[in-house]
Write a structure and sequence with these properties.
Helices cover about 40% and strands about 10% of the residues. It is built from 13 helices and 8 strands.
């Protein structure tokens, strides 16, 4: 991301999907500048249903305070600067409101819902805007409708593939989990009607049973989302990387094409009673937590400064390499537990991937030479 280097040196949901895509290709900011272009893609939680600016205003403000020059881009907004005053702190700031958030939209279109994938294609905003960083948060409406959740991961992968194919090679796509919901609140109660009866409509389920099923569906979606992103990332790395030739390097920036990262916004929405406006959409308190999360994550990514910690080379042997390779290829049932991360996250980037395989190979080669 060449532009970012110079910058650093200076420093969901509407009930129905009736809002149609803005046909403008890109709400562009200042042309010819070294601003970091960020595109936020998603449904009403990105759009800001009931709370103008959603998390985007806090993201913009926090990154600006950190010294970054930011240009929010998208299919909507046309470089419109909005002003916000925090009623709790009294702080006022302006923010770039350009975005690609559409209330009521799903991953892909289906009866009653428009799709983000189709909207990206029809507006061609990715190619026209050429964002440096893309944030994708989508799937809340699919969960609300309980729409073919067995295939939600396939729809998401198709969407991710389209984005990756249409952003610059120096760009990065962050795909995040979706926040939890409070489905039995009166304002959103009817939105979750597909969970309140059996498929044949012969049995009605009590509210507590429906809520349990809703939370389970959302949790499974988030787990599958993270798995999809990590597997796609590993496949991309393996397809670009000659393990023998590049075994001495664990630098992902050397790979061809845009980078793909997973994120976990759901981790900051910890109290659905106080951080959600209506049981689905965050209030300003929740959005502020989301914006701060994104600002810290993006700041850390741009600085490219992971914690450096030398591994204890004496505790590894060839069997560890075999186990780690099987894990990466999905041949082991282990999860990213603290114990696994502690031992096998060798480059300490909080993810177990092929870069750790390369680092371990380097350690073992060193020990036998």
């Amino acid at each position: 991301m060449n532009k970012i280097v110079s910058v650093l040196a200076a420093a969901a949901v509407c009930l129905t999907g009736i809002e149609f895509a803005n046909k403008k290709a890109c709400a562009l900011g200042e042309q010819g500048t070294d601003k970091i272009k960020i595109m936020a893609i998603g449904d009403s939680i990105t759009d800001g249903y009931g709370v103008a600016g959603s998390y985007r205003k806090y993201l913009y403000n926090e990154l600006t305070k950190k010294g970054y020059s930011v240009d929010m881009v998208g299919s909507k907004g046309n470089n419109f600067m909005s002003e916000f005053t925090d009623s709790e702190t009294g702080e006022s700031f302006t923010y770039d409101d350009d975005n690609t958030g559409y209330s009521g939209y799903a991953i892909k279109e289906y009866p009653g819902r428009n799709g983000i994938l189709e909207t990206l294609k029809s507006t061609d905003c990715l190619a026209k805007c050429e964002p440096d960083i893309v944030i994708l948060q989508i799937g809340t409406n699919d969960v609300i409708d309980n729409h073919d959740m067995d295939n939600a991961s396939k729809r998401l992968q198709e969407l991710i593939e389209y984005i990756m194919e249409n952003i610059p090679e120096s760009s990065t796509l962050f795909v995040t989990t979706i926040p939890d919901v409070d489905p039995n609140r009166s304002g959103v109660y009817d939105w979750f009607s597909n969970y309140r009866h059996s498929a044949d409509w012969q049995t009605n389920y009590p509210d507590d049973a429906a809520e349990e099923n809703i939370h389970k569906t959302l949790l499974v979606y988030n787990v599958n989302l993270t798995s999809v992103v990590q597997k796609m990332r590993s496949v991309k790395i393996l397809s670009n990387w000659d393990m023998e030739k590049d075994a001495q390097s664990t630098d992902e920036s050397s790979l061809k094409g845009p980078q793909l990262r997973d994120a976990d916004v759901s981790s900051v929405i910890t109290d659905v009673k106080t951080q959600l406006m209506d049981g689905v959409h965050p209030n300003n308190k929740g959005y502020k937590l989301m914006g701060e999360y994104w600002a810290e994550l993006i700041d850390s990514y741009l600085k490219n400064a992971p914690t450096v910690q030398q591994p204890d080379e004496s505790k590894y042997n060839v069997s560890d390499l075999v186990k780690l390779q099987k894990y990466i290829l999905g041949g082991l049932a282990d999860t990213n537990s603290d114990m696994i991360l502690e031992k096998y996250d060798i480059n300490k980037d909080e993810t177990i991937d092929v870069f750790d395989v390369a680092a371990l190979r380097k350690i073992l080669v060193k020990e036998t030479s």
